[in-house]
Amino acid sequence: MMAIEDTTAQNDGRSSRRQSAISAYDNTRERASDTLGEAPLLALAGGIAAGALIAALLPRTETETRLVGPTARRAKDSARAALAAARDTGTQRLGEMGLSRDRAEETIRSLLSDVAQAAKDSGQAALDAARDNDGAKG
Q1: DSSP-assigned letters across all residues of 66-107
Q2: C-alpha distances in angstroms, 137 versus 124, 125, 126, 133?
Q3: Are the CB atoms for 43 and 35 separated by under 8 Å?
Q4: Distance of CA 36 to the CA centre of its chain
Q5: Which residues of 79-95 are buried (b: 16+ CB within 10 A; e: fewer)?
Q6: Residues 17, 24: contact at Cβ < 8 Å?
Q7: Which phi-psi region, left, alpha or beta, contains residue 39 (left: φ > 0; alpha: ψ -120 to 50)?
Q8: What DSSP state is assigned to residue 58?
Q9: What is the pTM for the complete model shown?
């Protein structure tokens, strides 16, 4: 009799877990359907991001490496060349305008020195004004 009760309890537990899984699946499917209807581009972006994440986590196959490797190498080389060209052009244009790293450092040092001097002068003026005000009262 005890064995029958144990078996019945196990079946009830499995049935309950099965029903919970079915319910969770239905709820998820409903929410996904609502999301697709309300914001299809958001759902598309999420799908693309999920696919990219899964692809990044999976190891590359030899065939994939052999087929994609040369294209990836060309893309990296092109990106490096574009970066170098942009950096060189930017540096050249800044040079034509009379701006260089040394000149920028010099300008910043001068600006900081001027700000420090202005703060010192303001502090001294405030101290002098307080002293004058104190002397006028006494």
Answers
A1: HHHHHHHHHHHHHHHHHHHHHHHHHHHHHHHTT--HHHHHHH
A2: 20, 18, 17, 6
A3: yes
A4: 26
A5: eeeeeeeeeeeeeeeee
A6: no
A7: beta
A8: S
A9: 0.33
Q: Could you give the 3-state DSSP secondary structure of residue 136?
A: helix
As a whole number of angstroms, the distance between CA 20 and CA 28 comes to 12
At which residue do the structure tokens 């001294």 appear?
Answer: 124
Tokens read off for 43: 């759902």
Q: How far is CA 10 from CA 19, 21, 49, 116, in A?
A: 14, 16, 41, 80
**Contact call for residues 95 and 102 (beta carbons, < 8 A):** no
Tens digits of residue pLDDT in 19-70: 877 887 777 777 766 655 666 676 677 778 888 888 778 787 888 788 888 8
Nearest-angstrom CA–CA distance, 93 and 81: 18
Residue pair 53/60 in contact by the 8 Å Cβ criterion: no
Reduced to 3 states, what is the DSSP secondary structure of residue 63?
helix
